[in-house]
Each structure stands twice: as C-alpha cells, then as structure tokens.
Amino acid sequence: MTADTPPPTAAPSWTDRLFGGLRKTSERLGENLSGIVSKTRLDDNQLDDIEDALILSDLGPRAAARIRARLAEERFERGADEQAIKEAVAKEIAAILRPVARPLELTAFPRPQVILVIGVNGSGKTTTIAKLGHLFQEQDYAVMFAAGDTFRAAAIGQLGIWAERLGVPIVKGPEGGDPASIVFDAVKLATERGTDALVVDTAGRLHNRRELMDELAKIRRVLGRLNPAAPHDVVLVLDATNGQNALQQIEIFREVAGVTGLVMTKLDGTARGGVLVAAAEQFGLPIHAIGVGEKMDDLRPFDPDLVARVIAGVA
Ligand SMILES: Nc1nc2c(ncn2[C@@H]2O[C@H](COP(=O)(O)OP(=O)(O)OP(=O)(O)O)[C@@H](O)[C@H]2O)c(=O)[nH]1
User: Fold this and answer.
1) Which among 122, 99, 96 is positioned nearest to 278, based on CA atoms?
2) pLDDT in tens, 159-174
3) Where is the SRP54-type proteins GTP-binding domain (predicted)?
4) Cα angle 147, 123, 113; round to 5
5) Cα–Cα distance measured from residue 216 to residue 210, given in angstroms and rounded to the nearest whole number
6) Where in the chain does DSSP place strands (E)?
7) Ligand 1 centre from 136 Cα, in Å?
8) Is the CB of 255 under 6 A from ligand 1?
C-alpha cells in the first residue's frame, strides 16, 4: 500500500452495530438515570427514582423492583456517580438476562430439526426466518424453509424471495392451502435430503385464537406422525416497538402454541429495548437472538452482558 492510498474503511463490528441499533434504548435509560448522583449512600428517594427510571424505560415493574432491591443491598456506602449507578444497573440487568440467553442450536437427531416460527403479522417473522437461515448457513448447515403461512399470498411470495436470495430450498403451496400438508411434505423432503434445519413460517392470526390454535394443533399432529419429537422449537418473533404489548403476545402465544423461545426484532427502531428485560424477568423463556436491522447479518445470538451494558447506557 502506498502512502497516499486511503486505508480500507473497516466495516462496523457487530458490537458497534448493536450499540448503534440500540442507541435509542440506551439513551432512554441513560437520560432517565441522569442526575441521580449521591455523595453519601443511596437513600430511599434515590432508589425510588432509579426504580421509576427503570419502569419508564420499559423494564417492567418486576425487574425494576428486583434491581432496586439489589442496589439497596449495595447502597454505595461512599456515594455513587451516574456512571457507577449505570454500571451497577448493567450488572443487575445482565443477571436477569444471562439465564435466558440461549442460541438456537441444531442438536436434534434424526434430522431435520423442525423450527416453527410464530408471531403476529408485521412482527418481522419472515425476515427473521431468512436471517435464521443465513445464520445456520454460516455454520455450514443445510436449511429448508416451509411456507406454512398460506393465509396470505404475499407471505408465501416474500419467503420465496428470501429463499431464492439465500439459495435455500422452499416447500410451498397455493394461497389458502393446508399448512399442515405443506409441513408434512417439507418434513418428508428434508428427511430424505438430510437437511439440518427446517424452518416453518406460520400464519399470525392472533385475533382469531381458535383458528390459530386449531391450525397449530394440526401442524403438530402431522409433524408428530413423521417425527414424534417435532416441532423441536416453537420460536415466537416479537416486535420490540410494541413495548409492553409484546409481553401480552408472549402470554397468549405461550398458551395457544407452547412457545419454547423468543426472538425480539426491530430493537434498532425503538427506545423500548428494555422490554427484553421485562420479558426475561416475567417469563424466563429462552431468548435466542435479537434483530437490530433489516439486513441478513442483523440477527445475532443474544449476548446478555453486552446487551445489558447497552441498555444501561454504559459503553
Ligand atoms: N428496523 C428493523 N426492521 C425489521 C427488523 N426485522 C424485520 N424488519 C422489517 O419489518 C417489516 C416486517 O417484517 P416481515 O418479516 O415482513 O414481518 P412478518 O411478521 O413476516 O409480517 P408479514 O409479512 O406481514 O406476515 C419489514 O419491512 C422488515 O424489513 C429489524 O430487526 N429491524
């Protein structure tokens, strides 16, 4: 390289992108915690202020109370500046997130591992399926998609576009077709081909719980005939911009679909990322990954310590 050749611009690392994506969330809690400085040990009013700041930042009353209680034990005998308080909050958030951080690993034998992906329309389900496919491909796994959301032609089309882009085979049927029969065909084909992961899209008709429940129950019955262990995963995709509504969705889908893990998307477009902590505290369901953008690489396994620091606003 000659002296006047400009240095190659390094692509921002995932950590940078995560900080960038979660900037709004990070600023929200940072702002809410700002000004809480103590020259002596934290008093009850200051602890109340911290608890309020956490609730205002969507961490939910349970997590907020838990963090308050831990800080009350610590008390910072010699006083605390804003940074020390944020560090302590980050530590407590990490303690809540660590037990639920679990990447989606392909461990099922015989193959394929069948992953049902559920969630309301617009939550980022289709994009997440594509991103998961990409993550698996990066690990040299063979992936297949099944277009089980036959309710809307657009959903089938969109998944088809992603499948083509990624070079992932897709099993699909006509709009209005029977999702269970598509899933049946897909499992058969994936078994014959030795595919590692079969990722199944489903319809997100939350407003009609009965239909959704019947449809998922039928998919489960059909799957069970081919492989009693399937589906191995039932992954609920949630849109973080929905804030506390996302928690209600977990409640409902857990009841109708037996959710085994979560993916939280759109954390880049919202200050409401604290809802991740509320979800972890309230439900204890595994969080597999988070989405911080629309690109293929914008879904990464969930790193609890890093995310805790970003949410608490400590870089
Ligand atoms: N900013 C951002 N946008 C996202 C993310 N994940 C998905 N999206 C966008 O959200 C929109 C909805 O995503 P889809 O994947 O189509 O959502 P869906 O749940 O399948 O919705 P339907 O196709 O309507 O069923 C799209 O414009 C995506 O590009 C994310 O992590 N960040």
Assistant:
1) 96
2) 999 999 999 999 998 8
3) 112-313
4) 45
5) 10
6) 113-118, 143-148, 170-171, 197-202, 233-239, 261-265, 287-291, 299-301
7) 19
8) no
